[in-house]
Amino acid sequence: MLFLVVALLLLGVVLGTVAHAPLTFSVALGIVIAVWLGVFAFRERHGRRRSSSAH
Questions:
Q1: What averages of pLDDT result for each successive group of 10 residues across the chain (55 residues)?
Q2: What distance in Å separates the CA atoms of residue 51 and residue 28, rounded to the nearest whole number?
Q3: Number of independent structural domains in the chain
Q4: Is residue 4 situated within a structural domain?
Q5: Transmembrane ranges (predicted)?
């Protein structure tokens, strides 16, 4: 339950910050985060394939 409260609190802080930031900044930051998550997913997927084939 405490995790849920902290998560909602952080979500409120982040959404409050985005509401006051310029739209172009918010979109640019969203694109950066999406690219970062895509690279992370790509590396995780290929890293697991490489380690699973070695066993």
A1: 88 83 90 94 84 56
A2: 35
A3: 1
A4: no
A5: 26-42
Helix segments in the chain, DSSP class H: 2-20, 23-54
In a domain, 30, yes or no: yes
**What domain range is 35 assigned to?**
21-48
Asked, for residue 32, whether it belongs to a domain, the answer is: yes
Question: Could you tell me if 25 and 17 are in contact, meaning their C-beta atoms sit under 8 angstroms apart?
Answer: no
Rg (CA), the chain: 17
Structure tokens at 31: 């694109």
The span from the CA of 15 to the CA of 13, in Å, is: 6
Q: What amino acid is encoded at 35 in this protein? A: V
